Automatic annotation (TrEMBL):
One of its GO terms (cellular component) is endoplasmic reticulum membrane. Pathway: Glycolipid biosynthesis; glycosylphosphatidylinositol-anchor biosynthesis. It holds the Pfam family Phosphodiest. It is found in: Endoplasmic reticulum membrane. GO terms for biological process: GPI anchor biosynthetic process. Belongs to the PIGG/PIGN/PIGO family. PIGO subfamily. The chain crosses the membrane at residues 7-26, 419-446, 467-485, 497-514, 577-596, 616-637, 649-675, 695-714, 761-780, 786-810, 937-962, 982-1002. Its main location: endoplasmic reticulum. Keywords: Endoplasmic reticulum, Glycoprotein, GPI-anchor biosynthesis, Membrane, Transferase, Transmembrane, Transmembrane helix. GO terms for molecular function: mannose-ethanolamine phosphotransferase activity. This is Uncharacterized protein. The lineage of its organism: Eukaryota, Fungi, Dikarya, Basidiomycota, Agaricomycotina. It comes from the Eukaryota. It is a multi-pass membrane protein.
Length: 1025
């Protein structure tokens, strides 16, 4: 019961603190439900076309269509899609190319929202990327529906999820959007269905949308600098030629990328490569711009793409919304913040000024309504500036009026972008208070769990029960308090105060009842490395380079153990500590060789996780090392277990056969995926490869999760009990005192069943010294194999090094404890005849916080080494298709989560090993030992897990404090907010791993007890609790 209560409280306070702070820090934009409903006549005068074809080539970066690509140009994605620039050069008043800024997060769903509503997304919208909700705010499609016009659609089915009632079902052909390994199906569907729709007359349409995914999928799969990208762009260029040929003079053709892609083909962030998308607008009939009119240069900004030497016309991607609306004679959507593209309204008269007037009035109307809404206070700090700009635009003389109107729209856009960072300081403060008090309460429990009193379990259980009762009372008080203060606390709801009251009351109760007493020794032992790690989040530079800081901290955390090794009283212990410490350091250094660079680290960082910075393929070395590592890891685990003769029982079957097969299957999956991506075997062969590796992945998961865990649950022991019959005199000479036998072998003499024989039966238990740790490491390796499957090849190599480092560290911790126990025994005279510490000292297993720090740092180091950064673009989306060929809830989400957060989960499940590694069951008839040895072991495991959770909870507090304190910092959404969000995710994975680990310890304890039950003293003690 004590375990369940503690875990429930821990998860509750973690979730509550995170929820409250996040609700105050990551606010969503208010979407007004209003619709533009002006008279149609006033919009018709701007119309130039009756229909429009909107072709979205997903992830079409600007330089893919630029007439002046970066130098040197890539042979795979530059100067290939050339039709737009050729027609622009031939018909400059009919054809226009723009570099369009796509607001982050640069994911397809959020960009479709922006492209249709003209509004701005928020960073928390990234959570909808796998499953979007219906768009209810005014949009281009809403206006088409209001006017009775039809929308045809072919391609990415995300549109159908966002606009299910506005896409004509007779003219819609949606295709699955998330199978990044399918480079052709969606594009082939667009190519085959869109031209017939354009040419037919039986079903009149006004807007035909085609959304191809091939370019984006090539980028995700192999990167932009790959021959597959060249082939795909050539296909798109030919298709564009087909569209230009078949459209009539009343049809406007718009080509655009919803976002760009970075060097590796990924997107989601706000780097210039991800936000630079291509836009091409072409009119086959009437010119869009007059050759006799020149707009003021200040309303025609230009920018230079990285690597290029010629500046190009620069627009906001949401500028397409008012532009297309007016060109089709539609009202501008109500929530639009975009500006018309001036060139397309230069017609030799006052069209630019009049169109801007309509545009500006629409934006001002939106701001007025927003100001009057429940979120209107967000505009208080900027409202006077907006009003002044509005009055200035209204009073501007005719010659500068166009520039003043344009300036007002751009000012409104920049001000509304700042609304992303409107915070609820009340909720943020409440969240920080809950996190802080939970840390103090956790530390108080940590102290109790480490105390030597026999009543610590009863005390803690009583304190937890009191905390639960007071927590319920606190929730009730919080709910009642909301009735009194709701008028004074904007944005604070009843559920916020209920959760806050319950979490705060329970944490404070634990602090008051546990009564931790700070001492000088406690203050002196403050973990310096944890403090330094937390303070990294105070600086954007340190946060950016955390992947280089963590290895240094990880190696430094082992310094105290190394110093103890130099002073060890025996050469055996000295060699073990220094040898395994060296192995740990080598693994940490080798893990550093795997890097994925975030945008801010260039040019001081080199990508090694992939074959190059522009590829998502594995490096050649990983193709060789991953299979070697898959075969070696089970053998290394078994070799370490052999030190304590614990490589028997289930270890003798699981490690060489089951675990090896599972790891090899995971490596085979990614090798086959690489072969598939190289397009060596043709379409038919690719289908076989795709289906084959999917079956391998599914079989591996079923084998390990269902078969492996079930089999382990039945017989989770690694002991080998041998019986031999010896003459009594020989037995007496070999084992005169059973407690003095080596710790890895327990010898128990007994009488022979033959009453006429003077011989005795000797029972030898091999693996006794690591009876708890050896079966638990088998359980841990089962989960390792599942995470291994979700890691790409370089990540598997790093995960193997992580495993070796963990084993080395466990041996270091065990040897250091032996040194301390031996020194204490020598100082007190508690040493046996053979020079080993007494039983009471041998079984002392209280984990020190300094022993937890290396494990926490190793987990963070593995997160970076497996190809991740706390940024959205570093998410390895291709892992969503390990078990399925298209996005399928929840399998796709689970595999992405395991790929990203697997190291944290494995660290959580490894926390109990700090206690149970090389821990034998209670020896027979040992009065020097506490009676409740098994219960004390469980309490020690709880202490270890709680210490690890506290480490990451302190990191969470630091990231939240500095993200909140620096909320107006230029890099808040680029650096601080993503780091906070990834800390949350890491905490969740760690908590899940801890719960699995505690279940594993409980199961091992029961099995060991049942196995040894019946032996004199041993069985009763082991199974007693």
């Amino acid at each position: 019961m004590i375990v369940a209560r503690l875990l429930c409280w821990l998860v509750f306070v973690h979730i509550t603190g995170i929820y409250l702070f996040s609700r105050g820090f990551l606010l969503s934009r208010l979407a007004l439900p209003n619709k533009s409903q002006e008279e149609q006549a006033q919009w018709n005068r701007f119309a130039t076309h009756k229909r429009a074809v909107l072709l979205v080539i997903d992830a079409l970066r600007f330089d893919f269509v630029s007439a002046h690509p970066p130098d040197p140009p890539s042979p795979n994605h530059h100067n290939i899609l050339t039709l737009p620039r050729e027609l622009t050069a031939a018909h400059p008043h009919h054809s226009f190319i723009f570099n369009a800024y796509a607001d982050p997060p640069t994911t397809t769903l959020q960009r479709i929202k922006g492209l249709t509503t003209g509004s701005l997304p928020t960073i928390v919208d990234i959570g909808e990327s796998f499953s979007g909700s219906v768009i209810h705010e005014d949009s281009l499609l809403h206006q088409l529906d209001i006017s009775g016009r039809k929308v045809a659609f072919v391609g990415d089915n995300t549109w159908l999820a966002l606009f299910p009632s506005f896409l004509d079902h007779n003219l819609s052909y949606p295709f699955d959007s998330f199978d990044v390994e399918d480079l052709h199906t969606v594009d082939s569907g667009v190519i085959s269905h869109l031209p017939p729709i354009i040419q037919q007359s039986s079903e009149p349409w006004t807007l035909a949308i085609g959304h191809g995914l091939g370019v984006d999928h090539v980028g995700h799969r192999v990167g932009p600098d790959h021959p597959a990208m060249k082939a795909k762009l050539e296909q798109m260029n030919a298709f564009l030629g087909e569209l230009v040929r078949i459209i009539d003079e009343d049809t406007l053709l718009v080509l655009l990328g919803d976002h760009g892609m970075d060097h590796t083909g990924n997107h989601g962030g706000d780097s210039i490569l991800e936000t630079s998308s291509a836009v091409w607008i072409y009119s086959k009939g009437a010119p869009l711009s007059s050759s006799f009119v020149t707009s003021p240069p200040e309303i025609l900004p230009k920018t230079t793409f990285p690597g290029e030497s010629v500046p190009h016309r620069f627009i906001q991607q949401i500028d397409l919304v008012p532009t297309i609306s007016l060109l089709l004679g539609l009202p501008i959507p109500f929530n639009n913040l975009g500006n018309i593209i001036p060139e397309l309204f230069d017609r030799g008269d006052s069209s630019v000024g009049e169109a801007l007037e309509m545009n500006v009035h629409q934006v001002k109307r939106y701001l007025d309504v927003y100001r009057a809404s429940e979120s209107g206070s967000e505009l208080d700090s900027v409202w006077s500036t907006l009003v002044d700009a509005w009055l200035e635009a209204g009073d501007a003389p005719p010659k500068s009026r166009v520039s003043a109107l344009f300036a007002f729209n751009r000012l409104a856009l920049s001000m509304c972008r700042s609304l992303w960072a409107q915070f609820s300081l009340t909720l943020m403060g409440a969240g920080l208070v809950v996190i802080l008090t939970s840390i103090v309460a956790s530390y108080a429990i940590y102290i109790i769990l480490g105390s030597s009193g026999e009543d610590r379990a009863q005390r803690l259980e009583k304190n937890l029960l009191s905390a639960f009762r007071v927590g319920v009372l606190g929730s009730i008080v919080g709910g009642l308090a909301h009735l009194l203060v709701r008028k004074y606390l904007d944005g604070v709801h009843a559920d916020h105060l209920i959760l806050f009251g319950g979490a705060l009351a329970s944490s404070v109760t634990l602090v008051l009842t546990c009564k931790p007493r700070p001492t000088f020794e406690m203050l002196k032992s403050t973990p310096i490395l944890l403090t330094l790690h937390t303070l990294c989040f105070a600086s954007n530079s340190f946060t950016i380079w955390e992947d280089h800081i963590v290895p240094f901290l990880c190696l430094s955390s082992l310094a105290p153990s190394v110093l103890i090794g130099f002073t060890a009283p025996t050469s055996r212990l000295r060699n073990r500590i220094l040898g395994f410490s060296t192995l740990f350091a080598i693994c940490v250094r080798l893990m550093m060789l795997s890097t994925v660079c975030r945008e801010e680290q260039y040019p001081y960082c080199v990508v090694t996780f992939y074959a190059s910075s522009t590829s998502s393929a594995p490096p050649a070395l990983a193709l060789v090392l991953a299979p070697v590592m898959a075969v070696s890891i089970p053998r290394i685990i078994r070799r370490v277990l052999a030190i304590s003769k614990s490589d028997n029982g289930i270890a003798g079957v699981f490690l060489p056969w089951t675990i090896t097969a599972a790891l090899l299957a995971g490596t085979t999956f990614w090798i086959v995926e690489w072969i598939h991506s190289m397009e060596w075997v043709g379409d038919a062969g690719n289908v076989w490869l795709r289906n084959g590796r999917t079956m391998v992945a599914r079989a591996t998961v079923v084998l390990m999760i269902f078969g492996g865990v079930v089999l382990w649950n039945v017989t989770p022991v690694c002991l080998d009990i041998q019986r031999s019959e010896w003459p009594a005199k020989m037995v007496a000479s070999i084992a005169p005192e059973t407690n003095e036998a080596p710790p890895d072998v327990r010898v128990k003499p007994s009488y022979s069943e033959n009453p006429d024989s003077d011989a005795q039966v000797t029972v030898t238990v091999l693996g006794f010294a690591n009876a708890f740790g050896s079966p638990y490491i088998i359980l841990w390796s089962i989960f390792l194999s599942v995470v291994w499957l979700c890691m790409q090849l370089t990540g598997q190599v790093v995960l193997g090094l992580f495993t070796v480092a963990l084993l080395a560290y466990l041996e270091v911790v065990d040897s250091v404890r032996d040194v301390r126990g031996l020194n204490e025994a020598l100082s007190k005279g508690f040493v046996s005849a053979v020079g080993t510490p007494s039983v009471a000292l041998t079984y002392k297993r209280e984990v020190q916080f300094s022993e937890i720090i290396p494990l926490a740092l190793l987990a963070t180091h593995a997160f970076y080494g497996t190809g991740h950064q706390p940024t959205i673009p570093s998410l390895q989306w291709k892992t969503a298709f390990v078990l399925v060929s298209s996005v399928w809830f929840p399998y796709s989400q689970i595999t992405v989560i395991l790929n990203t957060l697997g190291p944290y989960f494995l660290a959580g499940t490894a926390a109990p090993l700090l206690v149970v590694w090389n821990l034998p069951p209670l020896p027979p008839s040992s009065p020097a030992l506490p009676v409740n040895h098994q219960k004390n072991m469980v309490l020690s495991v709880l202490r270890s897990c709680l210490g690890l959770a506290t480490y990451f909870n302190i990191l969470l507090l630091g990231s939240a404090v500095f993200a909140g304190g620096l909320r107006r910092h230029l890099m808040v959404w680029k650096v601080f907010a993503p780091r906070y969000m990834f800390t949350i995710l890491g905490m969740g994975a760690l908590d899940m791993g801890i719960m699995v680990g505690i279940w594993g310890v409980w199961r091992v304890r029961g099995s060991i007890g049942r196995l040894l039950r019946g032996a004199d003293g041993v069985g009763a003690a082991v199974s007693g609790n």
